[in-house]
Design a protein that fits this description.
Length: about 220
C-alpha cells in the first residue's frame, strides 16, 4: 500500500552572499498548488542560523505536513543535488544575513552527529533524471545554513516525534546568476521546477527508497 501525503511543505531561502535572487525561492514560487490530491505549501526562509530552523519549525507545527522538502542554492554545482545526510556542525566561511558566522559549533548541542534524510533520495533522483533533469545523490550538504536547516528540521521532527519525512535539495545558479562567472554551471528555472515536481511525486509515491547502486545515481 502506497503512503500518501496530503500536505507537503517546500521551503526556499531568501537571497544571500550579495545575490539579488535565490533560485531555491524562485522554484518555490513556480511550483503548482497541488500534485494530484497533495497540496503544496511554500515558505521563504531567512538565510540565518537558528532563525531558519525556528521559522520552518513554526510552519511545521501550523501545517502538520507529511513531507518537508527544503531547497537551497549551491552555486558551482552542475546538477540538482538530493542530499543524503546532514551533519551536526556549523562552520561558515561567510556571514549569514544576520552577520553571524559560527565556526565549529554544533547545530544542536548534544544532538546526534548526523541525520540521514528520511525521504527516498534515490527514487527522487531517478524520477528527476526520468524528467530529463540533471540530478544526483549528494553526500555533503556543506556546513552553512543549508546543512544547518536540514539537520535542524530532522532534529525537530525526531524530538517532537512527528512522522513527517524530510530532506533537502541543493540547486545550481540560475542562468542570469552565472553571467560573468566564467565557466560556472547554471540551470534554467523551468528545468529546476520540473525537477522538484518530479522529486516530490517520487517522495509522495515511495515510502521506501529504491535499491539502486550508488554508481547509478552519483
Amino acid at each position: 500500500m502506497k503512503r500518501r501525503a496530503w500536505n507537503v511543505l517546500v521551503t526556499g531561502f531568501e537571497p544571500f552572499g550579495g545575490e539579488d535572487v535565490n533560485p531555491s525561492w524562485e522554484i518555490c514560487r513556480d511550483l503548482p498548488e497541488a500534485i494530484g490530491a497533495t497540496r503544496i505549501h511554500v515558505l521563504q526562509v531567512p538565510c540565518e542560523f537558528r532563525t531558519a530552523i525556528e521559522v520552518v519549525a513554526g510552519e511545521i507545527e501550523r501545517l502538520e505536513p507529511s513531507i518537508v522538502l527544503s531547497l537551497g542554492q549551491a552555486g558551482g554545482r552542475a546538477a540538482m543535488s538530493v542530499e543524503r545526510v546532514a551533519i551536526n556542525i556549523d562552520d561558515a566561511r561567510i556571514d549569514d544575513n544576520a552577520g553571524i558566522a559560527p565556526v565549529d559549533e554544533p547545530v544542536a548541542s548534544g544532538g546526534p552527529a548526523a541525520y540521514f534524510a528520511t525521504l527516498p533520495v534515490k527514487a527522487m533522483v531517478a524520477a528527476m533524471r526520468e524528467a530529463d533533469v540533471p540530478a544526483l545523490v549528494s553526500n555533503t550538504a556543506g556546513t552553512f545554513v543549508c546543512n544547518h536547516l536540514m539537520y535542524g528540521v530532522l532534529h525537530f521532527l525526531a524530538a517532537s516525534r512527528r512522522e513527517a519525512r524530510a530532506g533537502f535539495i541543493h540547486v545550481p545558479w540560475l542562468e542570469a546568476q552565472a553571467l560573468g562567472r566564467t565557466a560556472e554551471p547554471s540551470m534554467a528555472l523551468a528545468t529546476m521546477v520540473r525537477g522538484v515536481e518530479a522529486a516530490l511525486s517520487a517522495a509522495i509515491e515511495h515510502a521506501v527508497d529504491l535499491k539502486i547502486g550508488g554508481g547509478e545515481i552519483a
